[in-house]
Here is the input.
Amino acid sequence: MTKPMYKQFRSPQGWYSFLFPVTWEHMVVEEIPAFFHPEGGGALQVYAFESKLEHFDVDKELENYLKIHEIDYDPEKVAVFENNEGSSIRACEFQREDRVWMVYLVANKERMILLTYNSDEEVGDELFQQLTNIISSVRFLN
Here is the structure.
């Protein structure tokens, strides 16, 4: 029998879930879930938001997030996706103060999660694929 490669995380509020590698650990600090490889130099943090409006403008939300970090928003450097449940996904990366940042926004109607990975190490192909798999597995629940 093969061992599973991923395990499921379900938000404490019960409205989103995703898969993360079984080799990673996670902890919740001040209600912010963080996921990391114990021997790695970075962490993926997850922030959840609900809107009183009909839906989130993911491009505007990403632009606002980058502005807070004094990063110019360049739509040419943003990857745009949609998953099979209709969630809008935006992804970009930048370097700030010798740290690599990967920022992902996943939104579906009035719910959005912001996932940020930052590290003092370069993001290699294997880690990039793990992050892609995590983002691809995000599902909004009832």
